[in-house]
Amino acid sequence: MLDSVLSFIPLLLTLFGAFIIDPLTYWMIDKGKGVYRSLRLATVTAAILMLPGVIVTTLLILSVLLILIVLGGAGIWGVAILLGLFLAQYLVAPYVALWGAKARKPEPNELWLQSLLEEVKQSSGYRGKVELLIADNDIPNAFAIGNAFKKFIVLHKGLINILDRDEIKAVIAHELGHIAHNDNTYAYAAALTPYLTYILGVIVLVFGIGFIKSKDLRLLLGGIVLSIMGVAVILVSIVANLGLLAFSRVREHLADIYSVRVTGDTKILDALRKIEVAVKKEEASQEVVTPSLRSMLYIVPALYPASPHTSSYLMLSNPFSTHPKLETRELVVLKYYQELTTPLPPPPPPPP
Length: 352
What we know:
Blueprint: H1 2-7, H2 9-30, H3 35-70, H4 73-101, E1 103-104, H5 111-124, E2 131-135, E3 142-146, E4 151-156, H6 157-162, H7 165-180, H8 183-212, H9 217-263, H10 267-283, H11 313-316, H12 326-341
Helix pairs in contact: 2-3, 2-9, 3-4, 3-8, 3-9, 5-7, 7-9, 7-10, 8-9, 9-12, 10-12
């Protein structure tokens, strides 16, 4: 019994870590520890949180592959089909997202947006091909998506209507940051971990509950063990999901400071403030969207509740969301801009 309790201690410590990623990161940035250094630490911590889920998922996939290989010829075909499904998801998912957003090519009076994208690419030094699309959606938002062969930036019509030219340029730079950092690929790979881990946990739990109903003592004991294992795996998936959300928030910060570096200003904050004001108007008539893989694609979640301004680092944390709070994005962007614009101290004089 004691061993079972002790086995949950690492899980509880990891769960605790999910709630201190944000406060620790913002404390380091606020104390002048360096924006990139702090965000790199947050990225590593988020990866550690996903590690248990990655291990469980890897074992699951290897078990399935082993079973299929043992089956012989049919198993080889099964492996090929399984790998084909993963590849198909990676290749097709961007086009499914574009279809869902009803994204289209710019009309003649919107071609200036493509020119803005070219300006941003030239300033950033990004040489890859990126296609800019427009979604006829009144909600002000934007997202970047793609695979190794095609990459897209999608601007909502509502965003174009409320932002000025420089703010739109800053948003395009933010989205190009996601593309330059390969965030879509990382998001697809990372999101697979908690999902498969959760499914595995539910399956094990269901089998365990089924055996518990048996009158056979061995099956009963086996059912109890399976049920405990199922609950443990589900908890692992929850922790892995918290790591995924933390990873998503860090990538948003990195895209924000990419925009600052490319544009040389903090217009991304002006854009985010205008977007948030517009989004809050929608909150009065719509429900808050639950964080999901789809919401990770956008520059802001479709809808999210306002939070009072506070200087407490713990209150700045947003562990259950794909996006950081606006006030933390302001902190990171302004600190990074200060780092860029602060001249280096003069070198020390030579020794006498």
